[in-house]
Amino acid sequence: MATNRTFTMLKPDAVEKGHIGAILEKISASGFKIVAMKLTQLTKADAEEFYAIHSERPFYGELVEYMTRGPIVAAILEKENAVEDFRTLIGATNPEDAAEGTIRKLYAESISQNAVHGSDSDENAAIEGAFHFSGRDTF
Ligand code: RTP
Ligand code: MG
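Above: the input record for the complex with magnesium ion. Below: its predicted structure, written as tokens.
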């Protein structure tokens, strides 16, 4: 994946509360082009692998439970400086610390259930995008 791309998930809490449309609208309005997208559900093995970096953290079990409890929207987004700009758009991990107008400030419930994921590097964006999408599903 080119470095002008990032990977996102609208997490189960956002989907359950009916926020898919509002969040995608905000993403599009912020200049990101959707180049791959689907509604899907993570298995326990998927979530454990996706968040393996956090496996020693006290919240890991809770995180895997949360991320697998219902459908998510997975998408690859394209924009110049996509990884950094998308992290800015979603805001801090804890919505209490997130800037006004960010997706987490608007839609996240808590530090654990925070509505949206954004890749933290170009390398991880490529790995995470490839985890969910084949070349023929990416435009
Ligand atoms: P993400 O990977 O989902 O985009 O979130 P992030 O970079 O802002 O935060 P990260 O440190 O990578 O944490 C991954 C996800 O784990 C949950 N979390 N819970 N209870 C807690 O203290 C806690 N801390 C993190 C959140 O769902 C967070 O997004
Ligand atoms: Mg992270």
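Notes for the reader.
Residues 5-133 form a domain with the Alpha-Beta Plaits fold (CATH 3.30.70.141).
Residues 44 and 68 are 6 Å apart (CA to CA).
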